[in-house]
Amino acid sequence: MAVFTDTVVYGLIVPFLPDILQDKLGMSSSSNGLLFGCFGIGVLIGAPVSAYISDRWKIRKWPMILGLVGLGATSVLFALSNAYWELIVARLAQGISSGITWAIGLGMIADVYPGESMGQAMGIAFSGFTLGYLGGPVLGGAIYSGGGVHAIAIFVGAIAVLDLVFRLLLVEPKTILSAQSSPTSSFARLEQNEKLLQVQEQPKRRTTMLDLLKEWPILACCLATVTITGAAGSFEPTLPIYMKEKYESSIIVISVVFIALVIPNVVIAPLVGKYTSDKRVLNKVAPYGRFAFMIGGSILQAIIIACMGAISNIAGLVVTLVFVGLMGGIAAVPIMSTMGEHVERMGGDAYAKVYALFNIAYSVGVIIVPTVLPPIMNAVGFAATMGVVAAVLVFGALVLAIQPTIMLIKHGRHAYIGDNARPFL
């Protein structure tokens, strides 16, 4: 719920942004990308600060509540804005509030679902992310057509109140672990939680974000986040303008087309989370492990996106976006569980920090892609712009393949199979 609320705010404005900026304020299409980029800058500020506080003092609940209150307030500010600079300030503040709850919320999942269970939990969380991130334009178009920007503010306020109820009922992970360790719990759960508590009690130097970035799997996942979420975000500043110019599509039609991205992604995310946590599945693609899904999904998605410029009708566009959504889910879901599991191997004291890095990487993608693509599309057209997005995905896939390929050449695949197998990604 928290992930959905945060990300839906990002996507709500997509279908009606041209109506506000170009038709009402007379701005150029480049201003659309800047407004999206401000959200990413806000996340870039809010995520690392909240992650440090949360990991340092072991609190998750109240920073999340603070972030939610801020999100509701800034959404009202956005609805009341009548000038471009006011929209910029409101969007920046929304990003800060979202960054606070993102990093801490994902860190809380890692606290409660360690080991193999983390992948499936992250898959479900990613469904909420996708539903908000890509489903936001669908909701935004329908709500704006019915009641304008003030109806958007009321909707955000309503889901914020609902989310606030859930967050007030939230139990800190330490309390959850204590309750689960009671005599009535199963032996397996007791053993798992005792292991977690032992890890948390080990006296050692606190893991910093710099320490995390020195770990190649985490650094590679950050890069994958930039390229994969950047590719997903490439449609928001470009597709509404393209459809309005080529097909003269209404806001409702643009919103409905975005459903083609949302549903496949939401459906496949929990399945990918489940299978990328299954050691039997990962052993079959050793030493690439979860990276095999990120690499394969990125390359297939790049091929599909590169072909989008050849589509001549809306029906073909919808079919293409369905496959883009499927491949995007396969590529993106393993990122969060890979980062969380690597932190667990390091001692498990930096979950909020590692997901702050995820948020920072996401923000970089959100800042760069929406800001850069509209001017590129103005210069070279939609088809060539999609070619640029495809090239970014292929670059990310090649970088992801570097370490596991070196491991494969150096040790051979047999070294990663069996009882005494080497650890892999």
CA-based gyration radius:
21 Å
Order of helices and strands: HHHHHHHHHHHHHHHHHH
Task: Give the DSSP E fraction (strand runs of 2 or more residues).
Answer: under 5%
Number of helices: 18
**Unreliable runs, pLDDT <50, ≥5 residues?**
176-191
Please state the average pLDDT score: 82
Count of DSSP E strands? 0
Q: How is the main sheet built?
A: none
Q: Separation of termini?
A: 29 Å
Q: How would you classify the helix and strand content by structural class?
A: mainly alpha
Dominant shape: globular
Helix percentage range: over 70%
Short description:
This protein is mainly α and 425 residues long.
What does this molecule look like?
- With 425 residues, the chain is mostly helical.
- 81% of the residues lie in helices and 0% in strands.
- The chain is built from 18 helices and no strands.
- α13 runs parallel beside α16.
- The longest helix is centred in the middle third of the chain and has 33 residues.
List strands and helices in order, with pairings:
Layout: H1 2-11, H2 17-24, H3 30-57, H4 61-80, H5 84-112, H6 117-133, H7 136-168, H8 173-180, H9 187-201, H10 209-213, H11 216-233, H12 235-246, H13 251-275, H14 279-284, H15 290-306, H16 314-346, H17 351-380, H18 382-411
Helix pairs in contact: 1-5, 1-6, 1-7, 3-5, 3-17, 4-5, 4-7, 5-6, 5-17, 6-13, 6-16, 7-13, 11-16, 11-17, 11-18, 13-16, 15-16, 15-18, 16-17, 17-18
